[in-house]
Inverse folding.
């Protein structure tokens, strides 16, 4: 019990610090900072607040948390497919994707049916989409169109659903009834913190840009600093995690940081490709929900499975 | 009342619409909103995007043959106070334009889709001449161009199940019929006003 409150308190403290830093930066017009960077920083902090509140709910009700993540996935998929050019022939397949596979995935997660939800999308949905698009009779750029829908479903729904799935894992020496909620809280905090640290470090002393054509600010310095800072934060939160040795939490934190960067970079590539749509009026704010969850989407399934492989115990 | 709220929120949920007014403000003065037409949701969408006080005074123009079929549609067109126009039988002494002008009086505004029907795909079809005759008889009406973006993917022609992508609705600055402006030039200008809103 004490650990739950301590973890929430620590995250609250970090968030407050980040919020104050952001607001202070916004007022410092004399420093000659890039205002867009400050705004981007602040919107990241806002997303972090949002997730912390949602995750606060995870301590009270697992099912409700799954539903909220489902809504998030639905909205992200909506943004993704709005950016993606589809043809009239894809319409029926898209209907099933939105109103059947997306809800079903989260219902299965809520009932902890791992055997089914781990293959629902990569097997059944993928084959169904291809067949349904074929039945529509429009064969132009067939593979390309099918792949686009499949990728959207995989990243926005399947990958994201592994974050609330953490609530149903079992491991040895679970302490307290909220150990799962703490694990999810730890995971989300690490992802969002890693992205924030990467962003700050790249802005402050990023020299070697990773891929200039896709993301003109993400640098090796930033990613390495983020991994280091995540490891540090992981160590400070060590007591709240189920890990049994300090090097485990360090390795896991760095893994999360690396996956978060990979996710953000991948999504940036997609947005770069569809540049004219991204800048249009369809999606409000700083690229919308998708922009905020891309890192979580990549980190969640990897974290889930690595944890499951090394630490989980059969129920 | 309940149907109205339900309808508005359903339409907003399905279309994920973001509404923008570009060089234009919502106002209760008499106006004609004219928009491109790609889906069945367009009528509800434009109508529900207006602020409540404006919405109460605004009547969408709808096709009689479509909206008088079945109980649900008959109830729905009453909810948004639609003005039904017979597309099939247009009589000289009872022309749609005269009917519209008589119905709106000095208080109501109109929503109309000058393409006449839903266009397939992304393109915007040629405008029918109703808009021209309407403003020739009532040159004081403000004509507000409205651009509906992406609805052709959300509920395309010939589909009855929607796909909930995101769309946007842009209201532009008013245009008027210039004195002595030829019909075709005016209609082309009105169409260009709608098309031009896409990238604003």
């Amino acid at each position: 019990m004490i650990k739950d409150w301590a973890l929430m308190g620590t995250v609250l403290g970090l968030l407050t610090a980040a919020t104050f830093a952001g607001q202070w930066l916004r007022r410092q017009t004399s420093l000659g900072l890039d205002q867009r960077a400050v705004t981007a920083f602040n919107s990241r902090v806002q997303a972090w607040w949002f997730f912390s509140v949602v995750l606060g709910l995870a301590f009270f009700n697992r099912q409700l948390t799954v539903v909220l993540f489902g809504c998030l996935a639905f909205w992200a998929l909506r943004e993704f497919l709005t950016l993606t050019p589809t043809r009239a022939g894809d319409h029926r397949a898209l209907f099933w994707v939105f109103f059947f596979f997306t809800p079903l995935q989260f219902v299965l997660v809520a009932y902890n049916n791992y055997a089914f939800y781990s293959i629902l999308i990569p097997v059944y949905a993928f084959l169904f989409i291809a067949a349904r698009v074929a039945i529509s009779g429009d064969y132009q750029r067939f593979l390309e169109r099918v792949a686009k829908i499949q990728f959207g479903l995989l990243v926005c729904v399947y990958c994201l659903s592994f974050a609330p799935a953490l609530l149903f894992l079992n491991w040895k020496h679970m302490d307290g009834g909220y150990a799962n909620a703490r694990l999810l809280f730890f995971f989300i905090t690490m992802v969002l913190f890693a992205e924030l640290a990467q962003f700050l470090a790249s802005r402050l002393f990023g020299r070697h840009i990773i891929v200039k054509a896709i993301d003109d600010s993400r640098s090796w310095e930033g990613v390495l600093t983020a991994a280091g800072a995540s490891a540090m934060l992981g160590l400070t939160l060590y007591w709240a995690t189920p890990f049994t040795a300090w090097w485990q939490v360090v390795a896991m934190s760095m893994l999360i940081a690396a996956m978060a960067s990979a996710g953000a970079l991948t999504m940036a590539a997609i947005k770069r490709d569809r540049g004219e749509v991204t800048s249009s009026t369809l999606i409000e704010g700083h690229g919308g929900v998708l922009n905020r969850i891309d890192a979580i989407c990549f980190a969640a399934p990897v974290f889930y499975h690595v944890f499951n492989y090394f630490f989980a115990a059969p129920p | 009342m309940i149907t109205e709220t339900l309808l508005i929120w359903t339409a907003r949920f399905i279309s994920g619409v973001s509404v923008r007014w570009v060089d234009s403000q919502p106002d209760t003065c008499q106006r004609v909103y004219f928009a491109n037409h790609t889906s069945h949701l367009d009528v509800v969408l434009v109508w529900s995007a207006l602020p409540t006080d404006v919405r109460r005074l605004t009547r969408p123009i709808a096709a009689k043959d479509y909206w008088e079929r079945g109980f649900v549609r008959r109830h729905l067109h009453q909810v948004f106070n639609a003005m039904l126009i017979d597309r099939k039988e247009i009589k000289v002494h009872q022309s749609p334009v005269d009917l519209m002008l008589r119905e709106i009086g000095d208080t109501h505004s109109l929503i109309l889709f000058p393409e006449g029907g839903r266009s397939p795909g992304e393109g915007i079809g040629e405008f029918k001449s109703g808009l021209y005759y309407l403003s020739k008889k009532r040159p004081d009406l403000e004509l507000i161009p409205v651009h509906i973006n992406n609805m052709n993917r959300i509920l395309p022609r010939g589909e009855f199940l929607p796909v909930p992508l995101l769309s946007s609705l842009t209201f532009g600055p008013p245009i008027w019929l210039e004195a002595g402006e030829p019909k075709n030039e005016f209609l082309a200008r009105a169409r260009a006003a709608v098309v031009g809103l896409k990238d604003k």
